[in-house]
Design a protein that fits this description.
By secondary structure, the protein is mainly α. Helices cover 51% and strands 0% of the residues. The termini are far apart. The model has no long low-confidence stretch (mean pLDDT 84).
Length: 81
């Protein structure tokens, strides 16, 4: 099976994608499909760009914005009352 090609999106490309979507050159759905990102990730980029500009789109900065992953609770765990 062939591996899917992935590319790292730097902060400048992320900004260009956002500006293209906002300017109407490309739809959100098209951007997500072309650059293989989901709607939530694109929304995260928008929030980061609005608050911090291009610097906010750096991977390290975005990681601080992402919700922390928590493992699911065991099915038979007792709830604390």
């Amino acid at each position: 099976m062939a591996r899917k090609k992935t590319r790292k999106l730097d902060e400048y490309l992320k900004a260009a994608i956002l500006l293209a979507v906002r300017g109407g050159s490309i739809s959100r759905a098209e951007a997500c499909k072309i650059y293989t990102v989901d709607q939530n990730e694109l929304s995260l980029w928008e929030q980061a760009f609005d608050e911090d500009g291009i610097v906010g789109l750096k991977d390290r900065r975005l990681n601080l914005r992402r919700p922390a992953w928590r493992p699911p609770a065991p099915m038979n765990a007792q709830r604390a009352a």
